[in-house]
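protien #1 (seq + structre)
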Amino acid sequence: MALTALQIFKYLPGGLKQENANCKKCSCPTCMAFAMKLVKNQVSPDTCPYISEEAKSLLSESFKKPQKEIQLGVSNPLKIGGENVLFRHEKKFINQTTIAIRVSSSENYMEKLCKIKNYSIERVGETFGISAINIVEDDPQKFENLIDESAALDFPIIATPRTEEGRKKVIEKLKFTKFLLDSEEQNNKDQPFVINGKSISDFEEKTEPLLKDGIENIVLNIDESNILKAASLLTEIRYESINNKKETLGFPTMIKLSDEFDKFEQSILSSVFLCKYANIIVLPDIHQEVLSSLLTLRQSIFIDPQVPLQVKPGLYEIADPKEDSLVFVTTNFALTYFAMRNELESLNLPSYLLITDADGMSVLTAWSASKLTGETIAKAVNSSELEKKINHKNIIIPGFVDVLKEETEEELQGWNVIVGCNEASDLRKVLPSLQKQVK
């Protein structure tokens, strides 16, 4: 397991009580502060000019990623793997699971490629799409054209040739694109490629000699049709690589869903494999219901649990507001912001949404932590120059913090503070009442 800040400190000049302790040459005020930055991977051990080679070697080994990271694509690179923990609350997950769509040379691939290119969803201020394309050689005569058309889209490619001729075409045509070769045959150690297996022993037998030859650009493909066994194997591989530091298993993993599953089964299975450590999931087709649920789940899992999901404070315009439009106040917690914004947009209500800086906290949390007060609301109103945009002096605060009405009116002399609803979903019902209270 990785060393703690206190354990690291013992190997630094400060912990060893050396003459150069707390020298500040690493840009940190103390050796303990430097140790804390090391734990968060914000600095390198080499930043300390007085660290011993023994300590440097120990720290480098401790911070070595137990799972290799590979990169696909050149102009729009995609990083896969490189994870350090089993559970995100320990630290955080690093590279989001790659969602790829399988495209066969025997199908109407032009239509499918067009759908891949144009698919995207937006959620909580982030836009997501399909991560990669898995091109499969089912019709050798059309495979070359499929390679060209896929490469032109500039998506990272996972190439699955079925013949030796197809393999040669893929390697030649995609040699400058940094693709993943879905084949165990490779003659270039810099070329990412796939190892297939149905058990831990399968993978270890194949990867051990490769590691001795310095070959590390490997992806482990779970070649197991039994769903429970596949999920169990994914979990075991991650556990052995992270907790037991098994280098022979320290590679990104991939699982490809069969065409036999309908969209409901795809949604369930892909969600299981996403939660159970698959670094790449290949889906057989584009079903918006499957993709939207999977991408939403992925976003929830891969956000940093130590950093609140927040938006930039300020004044946001909804549906082309006018001088007499309503002004709603809330915090910069992303879910709060988007809940309000979505409700206002669904009502097609010309309005202003004033977002206060509450360090990404929700309304009640911000109020209890004194991050949402009459003073902070007044500061947001004044800094946004709201008075120049509207012909009235009315603002609507969340119902949960109705106690801030008088306090805010004291801070904002001459303004009328209206108490709104608790939940954004109730806005439609209370809107007529709010409009009547505007002076």
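ok now protien #2
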Amino acid sequence: MKAWLILADGTIFEGTSIGATGKTIGETVFTTGMTGYLETLTDPSYFGQIVTQTFPLIGNYGNIPQDYESHKCWVRGYIVREMCDLPSNFRCGGTLNEFLKNQNIVGICGIDTRALTKRLRESGVMNGIIITSDTKPQISPEFLQQIRDYKIEQAVETVSIKNNEIPKHVQNDGSNIILWDFGAKANIQRELEKRGCKVTVVPCQTTAEQILAMNPNGLMLSNGPGDPADNVEIINEINKLCEYGNLPIFGICLGHQMLALARGCKTSKLKYGHRGGNHPVKDTATGRVYITSQNHGYAVESDTLPAFATLSFYNVNDNTCEGITYTDIPAFSVQFHPEACGGPHDTNFLFDEFMTKIKEVQNASK
């Protein structure tokens, strides 16, 4: 069956249907990762978005449930140049197309994804709709307005874990870490558990008082979807924990942004965001450049950092803020993903720095 992608500006692409049939509206974005498509599809940070893979061949190693970052697929739609129907991998548990159908994800393949990516880079991310139909859809002003009206809402509340879904954790005897779930990727918990931590995952509605009552040694603020400024109540709770002053905090992606908002910074939407596994960031202390995995459409405005905050990393491509270290409390955060399971693993050492910060606070309190 044919499928059609129509952007909010009226641009139309004709292709072939993949996954489920029907129609879906979302924010159309692109990601440059050459591998890790399963991690992308199951990353809660992509909630509300139609994801375009710029790498031309997707699905070559099939569906591997062990690589999922959450229990389901969160994207609104999926766009690829070519879908592999004959995957080859010793862990393969089926085709990617079967996975998309089972997850009820509407997708399209066979379109010029390079042209689509250029359009999004030039015009900025925009809403779009994928429709499966053998006839070309009629495009009217009302139809385009319907596409433009779509908005990602209640993103964090939708993807965050519920109280009856708390995952089992490894029974470690190390540091007691609270993982505040705003749409956490599973590998954040795995990286903490590798370091001997006992990790307790809590929903986004958890209060500062409830977190402190658990006597944590450290707090991890997870990644997640949507506009960080929409999460007013969560930001207020983060501010309370900062005022406590003695709890080591590590924020990633959305957690980085909301921590910055809680500390008086501002955030703004990027033209087309940073998504993929090849984004260079520079360490301001050493001058070293790391290649990172990223997935975000918003960024902290560097010129709004308060006196007690230091820019620790910045993006080499566009100079946007990629990391902050706070000098008045034991807290730091990064915009990129040091836990990226599909790689690169250049910045995985940041989890060790978090462990070091926890030990420093513990030793200072003795």
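The chain has ten helices and 18 strands.
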